[in-house]
Predict the 3D structure of the following.
Amino acid sequence: MISLAGRDILHAWGKFIFTGVGLGLLIGVTLTMAGVYRGMVDDGKVLLDNSGADLWVVQKDTLGPYAESSSIPDDLWRSIRTMPGVAEAVNVTYLTMQVVKGSKDVRAMVVGITAGEAGTPGWPPQLVAGRQITRSHYEAVADIATGFQLGDVLKIRRNHYTVVGLTRRMVSSSGDPMVFIPLKDAQEAQFLKDNDAILMQRRRTEANPAFNRPGVPGLLDAVIASQTSNSSVNAVLVRIQPEFSQKEVAEPIRRWKRLTVYDRAQMESILVGKLIATSAKQIGMFLVILALVSAAIVAFIIYTLTMDKIREIAVLKLIGTRNRTIAWMILQQALVLGVIGFVVGKISATFAAPLFPKYVLLTPADSVLGFFAVLAICVLSSIVAIRMALKVDPAEAIGG
Amino acid sequence: MAGKGIHIEGLSKRYGEGDTAVLALKDVNMHVAPGEVVGLIGPSGSGKSTLLKCLGAVIDPTAGRMVLGDEVIFDGGWKVRDLRALRRDKIGFVFQAPYLIPFLDVTDNVALLPMLAGMPNDEARTRALELLTALDVQHRAKAMPSQLSGGEQQRVAIARGLVNRPPVILADEPTAPLDSVRAMAVIRILNDMAQRFQTAVIVVTHDEKIIPTFKRIYHIRDGITHEEVGEGRRFD
Ligand SMILES: Nc1ncnc2c1ncn2[C@@H]1O[C@H](COP(=O)(O)OP(=O)(O)OP(=O)(O)O)[C@@H](O)[C@H]1O
Ligand SMILES: [Mg+2]
């Protein structure tokens, strides 16, 4: 027995390739959508990996430092470091803002890192060019996704920074590239008040009789000094000693210091489950719509291809072809269309992924899932055409 | 007068219901012996195609009785469960218009039937080629149907109707698009088939060239058949 579907496809291969490519582009968009979601999750994981931390100590009852703002005193790290099981505890600040270079600006996550060396939590683990920050002011390490180059001078708030090193794939959970600067500078950038605000506050403080007491010299100055200097960070990153578990170390800090402490798994669930949850739902909606549109298109194409063959199907029935054979012919064509579409989609998604501004991660598992989803859609959408073909009256094959 | 071949008694066919109903066949009585080729002629709209469709189990007769070989296939209702298998195994069709499968080449258009019946591809193609040669289209064996002339398509369609060597062949104006030489060749092949395989053949025709070749002719007028003796002229 010959393959009727195969012969038909060979006969009308142009039509098949053409519709297959059209369908493929749609499937490509769908795969890319899934890749955008995976990219977001991966951005979150990369962020946590690159932070080099085992525990995140943040302001009580906040989801900081990535999903909510958190502010804790910048001397807390000292006491945390003395707690059992803690190997390292360092301050860190995160602030997403526009970083200006010349006339253009880039949205970036500015990370304030403590003095130290590569490997310190918060520090970029690897550079692709240049060196790490060595001075305590006005140096920056930028991710290449910012477009900055070694030697560029950036402006963050009022201060200028020279780019001394470059990283790759150091991004925030929303995919913004990172710019690392010294902690002190970052604290200033985050909590810096402009001169007018400082002046106004000073006046208010002076006008307050509680602070401005004639009998207590030095009180007013002390109050003002404490108001203007900034002594907060967003989080303390903790690296634990290998022989301790994350739970063992986190629990005492949580109880004793009245702080919220997240371990790696909790942090991941905050980033994936809360921070990008809305985006994920958005993408999920798109995936559903795209799947429906693809299904409608495949159904329509298969339906028209079958409609074009009504007379031949009538002839086939007249000369005794079984329903099974006819249904299989239509189903095979739908599957071939699906396979062409998937191959085209996979290739176009692979080539398009690097062109997207955010990270698009195409996982083999998604591809396999997508492949079977496409086949399932093809099978479902050929049902209409098959039903129609089976209803064709063989009498139509005999003219008057 | 039951027996082998085709036997039709009191067959009627009504299309539609109520006011728009058409009684296309009123009282059809026919007998075609195995190995016999009979002509069926009548004016347009007299019910010729309707009769072939009933006999070919493509539409349902309204009443009557039909026997193919020694099997009663219809008696007030179908007596056969799988009409499609009946068509495939017992009946060869040649339609008024030659509907070939556009995505199969000439050989496979013909060979498809024996393949559907389970014959190996090579054997089916060999048999198809024999028939195509007899019908003088073997030089187009590898062509696609769309590349053939109307007459060539018709001859391929005839080959397809004969290829399974069915006990019954129903041909609806098979020679209409053919010149007289080829029309005669078709009639000769139908007669050869009828004799070699004891096939009962009914040929519907308007074709003045071939009418004289039938030994027996059925006239149909207003859905009623009348039998008459034909000239039975030789066709070579
Ligand atoms: N599907 C149908 N529904 C209703 N009436 C039909 C149908 N098919 C045929 N008829 C009617 O039945 C009658 C017989 O038609 P039929 O096709 O059998 O004629 P015919 O003898 O083959 O004519 P021709 O020589 O023109 O092919 C005609 O009056 C026709 O209009
Ligand atoms: Mg007719």
Remarks:
- The radius of gyration of chain B is 17 Å.
- Chain B has one domain: 6-229.
- The first strand of chain B starts at residue 6 and ends at 15.
- The helical segments of chain B are 48-55, 83-90, 106-116, 121-134, 150-162, 180-197.
